[in-house]
Description:
Largest sheet: 7 strands, antiparallel
Shape: globular
Number of strands: 7
Strand order of the largest sheet: 4-3-2-1-7-6-5
Helix content: 10-25%
Distance between the termini: 18 Å
Number of domains: 1
Amino acid sequence: MKNLAEFKRRIQAGVAIATIFYDWKRVKENDVETLACIPKDLGVRKIHEVYSASCNFMNSNGELSWLHFPKASECRFIDADTMEIHWVNPLRKDGSTLPKLRYTFIKTEEEKQC
């Protein structure tokens, strides 16, 4: 994927996506405050419903989890199947960003054979 529009085109009901949530915690060492990342694998979930500004996933417990589509400026495209949503690093004044969520499209067996 190269942009948010391409990501949105691939979002369809029934498509499987692996999700990683990056949990950033403030850590203070020697009077210097930094951020430590704790990645949490949310597993592979299928898209349940798609709307113009969001979509939802059916979680293993039967509850829905929502993704409200971000601004293009908040996205980083890692490869053909992976997008990260970034947020501004609160400890830096230079506008640098940190990953918050990573979405990777999972290919079906049929797509893998092509």
